[in-house]
Amino acid sequence: MARVLVIGASGLLGSRVCEALAETAEVISASRSGSAEVVDITDPASILALLEKVGPVDAIVCTAGMVRFVPLADTTGEDWVHGLANKLMGQINVARVGSDHVTDGGSIVLTTGILAQYPMPGSSIVSTVNAAVEGFVRAAALELKRGVRINAVSPGWVAESMVAMGMNPEPGLAAAEVASAYVELLNSASNGSIVPVAKGM
Predict the structure, then answer these.
(1) Where are the domains of the chain?
(2) Global pTM?
């Protein structure tokens, strides 16, 4: 049975990924809080400590990474640094440190978002960070050793999140449906792929 480390497991998407993998893999859940294992993706030393504790894994899924939705005119330097340090550098840290702890031929799946391709007012930080994550995935796929693959899922609106925000969830997909894309990528031969998961795509 494959061992899969899910970082961001206490969040909506991460928890659904854990559920989707539960019957076919040994799932190791990790998050900043609320999971069996604790990790801070902004700190490479924290990621290394986690990986040394849990031992080799066949795959890593990262759904963690914070970024702020703020109108461009209202953004501050700290808002930009926050997003770059969390969702961008955090996931780069996961891949960079984690690639040495994934078994030969293993898989790393990161998380971006369709605002990279379809920005909207207020999404300047989110769109920038997502686009950068996608560029990293495509480039890293050319350099990872031992047959380790790296891909990303690019979710659109998630229905449960829309409900929590007081929005009409009809344009969104259920988190469980988005989670299935992570599982499919783990089981595929894809490398350097960005998989959009949204209604109409």
Answers:
(1) 2-197
(2) 0.95
Sole residue written with tokens 């989670």 = 179
Q: Residue 134: helix, strand or coil by DSSP?
A: helix
Phi-psi region of 67 (alpha: psi -120 to 50; beta: other; left: phi over 0): beta
Handedness of CA 83, 42, 115, 12 (dihedral sign): negative
Q: What is the dihedral of CA 101, 103, 105, 109, to 10 degrees?
A: -50
- C-alpha 81/C-alpha 76 separation (Å) is 9
Letter for the amino acid at 107?
Answer: S
Residues of the chain under the 50 pLDDT cut? none
Integer Cα distance of 199 and 155 in angstroms: 10
Domain 2-197 has CATH 3.40.50.720: yes
Q: Residue 46 — left, alpha, or beta (φ > 0 → left; ψ -120 to 50 → alpha)?
A: alpha
